[in-house]
Structure formats: C-alpha cells, structure tokens
Amino acid sequence: MMSNKFVGTLLLSTIAITASTAALAKKPENLWGLGLGAVISDQGYIGVSNVVTPVPVIYYQTENFQLLGPNFSYKLAGMSDLTFSITGQLRFDGFEEDDSDVFIGMDDRSGSFDLGLLVDYETNLGDFSAEFITDATNEHKGNEFSLTYSKSYDFETYSIKPYLTLTRQSEDIIDYYYGVHANEVTQNRALYLGEATTNAEIGVQANWRVGQHHNFITYASHTVYGSEIKDSPLIDASGSVNVILAYMYVF
C-alpha cells in the first residue's frame, strides 16, 4: 500500500496545535492524549488514486519532550521566543510494486526514520522555523532542509493556523523515491536519475475544542513539486494534495 511522509510529520504538527493549546489551559506537568485520524492523500504517482490511511494518534508531552506515535522532539535549549530541538520522524514515503502498473518490475521503495535539528522563532508577526533532517536508517540516504512561516489565530474554542513551507530535498531522496534505475528501465519507462529540488507547500491547520478533553482536528495542504519530481516518469501531476481529519481525547 502506498504511504507518504505527510502521514507522519504533518499529523504531528497538526496535533501539536491542539495539545499545546490544551497544555496552556491546564498547565499539567505531563500531557497525553489518544485518538484516531484519517489521512486522504494524492501524491501524483501515475495510476494511484486518492489514498485513505487510518492513523492512530498517541500523544505525550512534557516540558521539553514531545511524542506523537513514532515521531518525537526534544528541546535542547531556548529562550522565551527561540528554541532548539532534536527531532526524529518516520518518513512514510515510498511504494510497492503492486501499488500501480507503473511500478511493475521496480524495486520497492521503503520509508525511513530521519533525525535532525529544529529551530523555532516566535514573533508578533508569526512563527518562523528551520529544520534539517537526514536519513538515520540508510534507506534513501539523503537529507532535506525546510523553512516554514506560520501564523496562529486562537479563539475561545478553536484555532486556525495557515502556513507556508519551502523544502529543499537532496539528490538521494529524489533519486530513491522518483528515479528509475538502470535495472528498472522498460520500453515504457525510461531511465531517470533524480537531482536535488525545492518544493513549495501551502496549507492550513485547524482544531475545534469541546470542553477540556475533546479535540477535532482538520488539515489541508497543497504541495507544488520542484521540476526534478515533476519530470519523473513515475509522476503525472504537478504536486500533491493532502487532508487530515482526526479526533483526540486529551487526558
């Protein structure tokens, strides 16, 4: 079954809005929650329609540590508006041969666990962040660097957070997930060696709180692929569309 990084990393940031808001309201030493979400995504691969993926939500947060399923962050240092954190996240990118006819005869592409550093800077104009992550499992053997601007609008029972992200993905990532290697070439599938590229993503995250415990979360985004992804013979779209619907109970 096709899967994607969106399930892991962006669900983490979406849930974090809800959990952080609850933490401000309750100010416990530890905060944790359980829930269930559904991810609807179209990554642009030929012959692969919208993929719906159920996702369990397991959340735990302390003053410096945050865990959501297989993803985590740990704050190393910081001031009131500037923080430095170690991050670890499961990359769900990849495909299997039976996901689409376009992949027949190709080796499966696996996900990875990526580690890196995240810097957050909060201002009155919005939040700015920079993140660098690299493959810790030797799957795609690449790395990526992203810059994000977001602005949160908080109301009594709900919050909305639009954002914009630019991500530079290394040659190894593009070649692994979108390339066609010499042993995979066919009459209808040409050799394709990927190179580094930059993607632009725009999206909005929102959550609605019912009392102190119940949280309903929505998320939608559109990513415009860089030319090195769009030129891949495995891709027939200019970008990807992703939606999250989720519920979390905060204890």
Q: Output the helix-strand order.
A: HEEEEEEEEEEHEEHE
CATH topology: Porin
- Total count of domains: 1
**Judging by the overall fold, what is the CATH architecture?**
Beta Barrel
Number of helices: 3
Strands, total number: 13
Quickly name the level 1 CATH class. Answer: Mainly Beta
Detailed description of the structure:
There is one protein chain. This protein is mainly beta. It contains three helices and 13 strands, in the order H-E-E-E-E-E-E-E-E-E-E-H-E-E-H-E. The chain has a single domain, classed as Beta Barrel (Porin), CATH 2.40.160.40. The protein has a twelve-stranded antiparallel beta barrel. It is globular and about 60 Å long.
Element layout with pairings:
Blueprint: H1 5-26, E1 31-42, E2 51-61, E3 65-68, E4 71-78, E5 82-91, E6 112-123, E7 126-135, E8 143-150, E9 153-154, E10 158-169, H2 171-178, E11 197-210, E12 214-224, H3 227-230, E13 239-250
Antiparallel strand pairs: 1-2, 1-13, 2-3, 3-4, 4-5, 5-6, 6-7, 7-8, 8-10, 9-10, 10-11, 11-12, 12-13
Outline:
Keywords: Cell outer membrane, Membrane, Signal. With 251 residues, the protein is mainly β.
Any descriptors?
12-stranded antiparallel barrel; 13 strands; 251 residues; 50% strand; 3 helices; single chain; Porin; mainly beta
